[in-house]
Amino acid sequence: MPTINVTNPLQEKAVAVIAVARENDISSTELRAMDTDQRAVLVDVAGVAPDKGHSFSAHEIDRIVGVAAHLWQTEAERTFLERQSAEKRMAPKGECVTCDRERSEGNVHFPAHNASTNCRSGAHNHCTCDTCW
User: Fold this and answer.
1) What is the pTM of this model?
2) Cα–Cα–Cα angle for 22, 7, 15, nearest 5°?
3) Within a 10 A sphere around the Cβ of 39, how many other Cβ atoms?
């Protein structure tokens, strides 16, 4: 799975929680459904330390885990949309060697099977002219 972009300390803590959740086969949905005690254990196992040198309050634990669930869900949705978009740009399985190869390698960013209707360079499959690509 692609790396989640982190822009602040809260997100860094959340990403550590996501790593532990993934290792333990806990989904983002299950993460959201945990009670505060379960979340506290997960935060502790992730090795996330409080900023102020004291223990986390229940609110802080819920906030870290809430951000983790949100980041994880956002990343999952982005990955799904990229793959869905790529599938729309591919020929059906077995009809194009290039599409089949890209699909099997999990690539989502490559020239579309069908050229643009505005293509001026021959409109061949997987065209890389400025109009198509």
Assistant:
1) 0.52
2) 10
3) 23
